[in-house]
Design brief:
Helix content: 40-55%
Strand content: 15-25%
Low-confidence stretches: 136-142
CATH architecture: 3-Layer(aba) Sandwich
CATH class: Alpha Beta
Shape: globular
CATH superfamily: Response regulator
Mean pLDDT: 88
Distance between the termini: 40 Å
Radius of gyration: 14 Å
Strand order of the largest sheet: 2-1-3-4-5
Oligomer: single chain
Order of helices and strands: EHEHEHEHEH
Largest sheet: 5 strands, parallel
CATH topology: Rossmann fold
């Protein structure tokens, strides 16, 4: 169905998302720090990266920046799943090229899985995703 790289250092969340995604037929691999996430993405080219921001070695913002600046990796959709809930963080991440910004405490696993499916479906059909808006927030007008 698709290969997802889960870049997360929280063991309990890794187990939870790995189980749910595998039950839905996805090939899920895990990177527990930013260096692993970069290495795995450059080597294996996943269909989607589910990326935490606060990770050891290289933080998720830097991982995202490097992925989106690489010719071989810039088209890989990245969903950021984080505990950071500030508007500034969300705007920065979306500005760097993430397709979605989800705050862990605001989005139960079923919502995250639904977003993963939506993004993968759109990317396999060549559709452009709607402009990303941080979940739980309304776009600024003006």
């Amino acid at each position: 169905m698709g290969y997802i790289l889960l870049a997360e250092d929280d063991v309990l969340l890794v187990r939870l998302y790995q189980k749910k995604l595998k039950n839905d037929g996805y090939d899920v691999r895990v990177a527990t720090n930013g260096e692993e996430a970069l290495s795995e993405t450059m080597k294996e080219k996943p269909d989607l990266v589910l990326l935490d921001i606060m990770m050891p070695k290289v933080n998720g913002m830097e991982v995202l920046r490097r992925l989106k600046s690489g010719a071989d990796t810039k088209a890989i959709p990245v969903i950021v799943l984080t505990n950071l809930s500030s508007e500034e963080d969300a705007e920065k991440v979306l500005g760097l090229g993430a397709v979605a910004y989800l705050v862990k405490s605001d989005n139960p696993p079923d919502v995250v899985i639904a977003k993963v499916k939506e993004v993968l479906t759109a990317s396999t059909r060549g559709k452009e995703l709607p402009k990303a808006v941080p979940t739980g927030r309304k776009p600024k007008s003006g």
